[in-house]
């Protein structure tokens, strides 16, 4: 769904902060977060968003990211995974993957999200 760019929400920022673990390998990506804007939201109704930059941000070394979080707790019967993507050295999306028939319309609570996979 195309939309007017908007600043990332506090929860989107907090999810990125949680998943971009405090490791030198992700320093440039963490530095990009303050200048992120949301340029598109998934058309299916889930909270997946695509990012653009609102200003100058440091380019990270382009590499496949293996950052995955899983939401646990009282969120339904099926697990929810959250993936971080980069394209060309820039954060490009935050994706919610639901394994239930109906994907949630909102991000799960931050305290339910744990990092389950990080490849540097």
In words, what does this structure look like?
The chain has two helices and seven strands, in the order E-H-H-E-E-E-E-E-E. The chain has 120 residues and is mainly β. The protein has one domain (2-117). The protein has a seven-stranded antiparallel β-sheet with strand order 1-2-3-6-5-4-7, covered by helices on one side.
Strand content: 35-45%
Oligomer: single chain
Q: What is the CA-atom radius of gyration, in angstroms?
A: 14 Å
Number of domains: 1
Number of helices: 2
Order of helices and strands: EHHEEEEEE
Give the integer mean of the pLDDT values. 83
For the largest beta-sheet, the strand count, sense and barrel status come to: 7 strands, antiparallel
Strand tally: 7
Uncertain ranges: none
Report, as a whole number of angstroms, the end-to-end distance.
31 Å
**Helix percentage range:** 10-25%
Q: How does the overall form come out from the CA principal axes?
A: globular
**Reading side by side through the largest sheet, how are the strands ordered?**
1-2-3-6-5-4-7
Structural class: mainly beta
Record the SSE blueprint:
Layout lengths: L1 E6 L2 H10 L7 H6 L3 E6 L7 E5 L14 E4 L8 E8 L2 E9 L14 E5 L3
Antiparallel strand pairs: 1-2, 2-3, 3-6, 4-5, 4-7, 5-6
Question: What keywords describe this structure?
Answer:
120 residues, mainly beta, 7-stranded antiparallel β-sheet, 2 helices, 7 strands
Compose a concise summary of this entry.
The chain is built from two helices and seven strands, in the order βααββββββ. The chain is mainly beta and 120 residues long. The longest helix is centred in the N-terminal third of the chain and has 10 residues, at 10-19.
């Amino acid at each position: 769904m195309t939309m007017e760019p908007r600043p990332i929400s506090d929860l989107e920022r907090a999810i990125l902060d949680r998943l971009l673990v405090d490791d030198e390998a992700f320093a440039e990506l963490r530095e990009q977060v303050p200048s992120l804007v949301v340029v598109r939201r998934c058309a299916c109704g889930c909270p997946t968003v695509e990012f653009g930059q609102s200003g100058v941000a440091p380019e990270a070394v382009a590499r496949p990211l293996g950052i995955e979080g899983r939401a646990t707790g009282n969120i339904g019967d099926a697990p929810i995974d959250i993936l971080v993507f980069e394209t060309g050295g820039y954060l490009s999306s935050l994706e919610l993957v639901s394994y239930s028939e109906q994907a949630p319309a909102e991000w799960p609570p931050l305290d339910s999200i744990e990092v389950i996979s990080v490849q540097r």
